[in-house]
């Protein structure tokens, strides 16, 4: 069977289908499995990332809290009035 070539195909892989347990599974060499070296962060960079994560979590918590409070106020004053 001839493989189709599409004009918009740039050859990138969207999802690797080399899943363990499948008949076509092939083992990767040790260096390919490891990838590149992990990035070493300084203390300041680590604190900045952690601070950003905490701020994002607090923002989401605040948004959901305000939405819940507004819903309760709506129920008490408008819906059940």
Description:
The chain is mostly helical and 81 residues long. The protein has a domain at 41-79. It has 2 helices and no strands.
As a percent range, the share of strand residues is: under 5%
SSE order: HH
Mean pLDDT: 85
Shape: flat
The number of strands is 0
Low-pLDDT segments, ≥5 res: none
Question: How would you summarize the topology of this molecule?
Answer:
Layout: H1 30-34, H2 43-79
Descriptive keywords:
81 residues, mainly alpha, single chain, flat
Précis, in short:
This protein has 81 residues and is mainly alpha-helical.
């Amino acid at each position: 069977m001839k493989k189709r070539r599409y004009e918009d195909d740039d050859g990138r892989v969207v999802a690797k289908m080399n899943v363990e347990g499948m008949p076509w599974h092939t083992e990767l060499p040790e260096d390919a499995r490891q990838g590149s070296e992990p990035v070493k962060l300084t203390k300041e960079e680590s604190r900045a990332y952690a601070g950003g994560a905490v701020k994002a979590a607090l923002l989401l918590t605040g948004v959901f809290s305000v939405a819940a409070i507004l819903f309760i106020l709506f129920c008490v004053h408008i819906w059940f009035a």
